[in-house]
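Aim 2 progress update. The chain analyzed this quarter is reproduced below.
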Amino acid sequence: MICLNCGNRYKGNFCPHCGQSAKTKRLRLSEMMKNSIAPFLGGDNRFVRSCRDLFVRPGIMARNYLVGKRMRYYHPLQLYVYLLTAYAVISYVLGVSGSFFDDMTTLDFQTDVEPSKYASVDFILEQVTKITSNKLYGTIAVALLSVVPYRWVFRKCKVERQDGEAFALNHIEQFYTQLYHSCISLGLSILMLPVCLIPDSEDFLSSVFYAITFAYIIILYRQLTGIKWWKSALLCLAGWLLTILLLVLIMFLVIVPIGVMEDMSGR
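Predicted structure tokens:
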């Protein structure tokens, strides 16, 4: 065989140089459809395995990926994109609108307020809530902001590798861990979409959703580091509070100068 990707000559079903399949075909409609659903129904079963372990044993899944077992699961960012796509398609098919999850897909900052209110605590907290609840950019932003607080809070907790070495999570490993939690949040949103069709269910859904997602991050770090349940709960609560304080501080530094400039221009 001659590899169509790198030109290497070989025998077998896959190129040993670049890994491309020998059965690479021309791009047709059938190939496009096959490639579109391959991540969800692929023969390697990685998507099904990733989604299953994401909810059954999220911390063990994250630990396996971080210590080197990379072929068993999808990259957390790749998994997030697939779940985000599934969320968009399912919510469109169900026609879910005007619900608790409707605010999670839009960027809608208030602009029709008095400049003096830009510095108010209520206004800043409202913008923080809109950011943290957004599915497209909010969860990624929160994952990034959570890296430093959670790394500091869990700095004494070690993750063990198969060779016996134990290490504390660095910034990138913390970010991947937070991405796994974002995937859990998105997966729960998908599962709860049909419930959104029930009238007047927004308040109940929001309480249940945030309670379950917080419980999962406790489970995630408990399984990842092997610490006790109460310690994982306290450290996760501390990390969450520090993340929210950091986000409020950033929003304050961004919003207040805007209000001051608009107030000065109005005069």
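The longest strand covers residues 159-160. Residues 98-111 have pLDDT under 50 and may be disordered. These observations will guide the mutagenesis experiments scheduled for the next reporting period.
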